[in-house]
């Protein structure tokens, strides 16, 4: 998406898809976050291993924080010129703030930085889940994949 030239058809299409999927993901994120907060949730991590628990809690909090920052900054880049975001022709997510090229550029810098960090964090998170499964041999991954109940 970043390397495409202006006249490449994907220059516009890839960004439209990125933004539309982003809005749908943002809606799901809010629902998921409210669900996680409102739902009493058993803490499955080993309470005796406080370093692991702290790392997992910290990583999960960072994953949520990065996603919120990505959604908000993405929205601010897209709406910097006062245009709403078309979501696959189904509806338009409106631009709520006054135009500001400066705010749009700042949001762009934040978006790029946080996206890079997020991609690395997801990689580490996935590696940690595989470590649990293949090295610690516990049921963390199976539980997440709903192979095991509880
Ligand atoms: C998990 C969520 C997201 C990830 C990982 C992500 C990732 C990225 C990446 C890697 C870029 C290229 C950055 C660059 O090098 O300039 C980008 C650009 C962009 N993203 Fe996202 N994005 C996400 C969500 C969103 C959302 C929700 C929106 C809008 C609703 C959005 C709108 C944009 C726009 C407009 C650009 C172009 C930026 C520019 O031209 O400076 N993104 N995104
Ligand atoms: C965009 C990619 C991902 C994001 C944003 C993400 C985010 C999260 C978050 C926030 C949690 C904490 C629990 C919750 O709030 O639901 C979690 C738990 C977990 N995730 Fe991910 N995850 C991603 C990808 C993956 C992948 C690819 C795997 C495995 C291959 C994975 C395996 C797990 C496991 C095993 C847990 C622990 C569940 C538990 O303690 O019961 N995740 N993930």
Please provide a written account of the structure.
The chain has 150 residues and is mainly alpha-helical. The chain has one domain (9-144). 67% of the residues lie in helices and 4% in strands. It contains 4 helices and 2 strands. The chain has helices at residues 9-38, 50-78, 101-136, 140-144, and strands spanning 85-87, 91-93. The protein has a two-stranded antiparallel ribbon. Strand 1 (85-87) and strand 2 form a beta hairpin. Helix 2 runs antiparallel to helix 3 (101-136). It is elongated and about 55 Å long. It binds protoporphyrin IX containing FE (HEM) (2 copies).
N-to-C series of helices and strands: HHEEHH
Sheet of most strands? 2 strands, antiparallel
Classify the helix fraction into a percent range.
55-70%
Number of helices: 4
End-to-end separation in angstroms reads 41 Å
GO molecular function, one term: metal ion binding
Protein name: Cytochrome B561
Domain Cytochrome b561 bacterial/Ni-hydrogenase: 7-145
Transmembrane segments: 20-38, 59-77, 113-136
Give descriptors for this structure:
mainly alpha; binds protoporphyrin IX containing FE; 67% helix; 2 strands; two-stranded antiparallel sheet; 150 residues
Secondary structure blueprint with pairings:
Layout: H1 9-38, H2 50-78, E1 85-87, E2 91-93, H3 101-136, H4 140-144
Antiparallel strand pairs: 1-2
The structure holds protoporphyrin IX containing FE (2 copies).
Summarize this entry quickly.
This protein is mainly alpha-helical and about 150 residues long.
